[in-house]
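haha ok so turns out i had the wrong file open the whole time. this is the CORRECT one, sorry everyone. sequence first:
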Amino acid sequence: MSQPETRITKQRLAVAQALGEINDFATAQQLHRWLQDSEKKVSLATVYRLLQSMADDGLVDVLRSGDGEARFRQCITDTHHHHLVCRSCSKTVEVQAPSVERWAARVAAEHDFSEPEHTVEIYGVCAECRAKASS
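then structure:
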């Protein structure tokens, strides 16, 4: 059975535009505030619903902060990828990791699972933050 097509609404376009303009990870509340400041009429509940839909469609990356709050960013690449995240400044880099893909497939097969999916986020401290800390 095929997936139903996603409706492209004014609200969905406004959220996509906000993600493109912000160009960094942002919470649903931050995106909603940006939309309000831009005089776009999109409720906070609609922002949450659209972000989840866009994440399900692979258009948006989702990172969870230490307190569990979701942060969203427009995907830079359209292929499966992982993230390096700076613990100090939250700078995020998308990375390809073929060895992780092979490992996930192998572990799934060893346990008789099929269609494995996974998310990998590696946290560390970026070069800029290390340089600031040592000066």
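The longest strand covers residues 60-64.
again sry for the mixup
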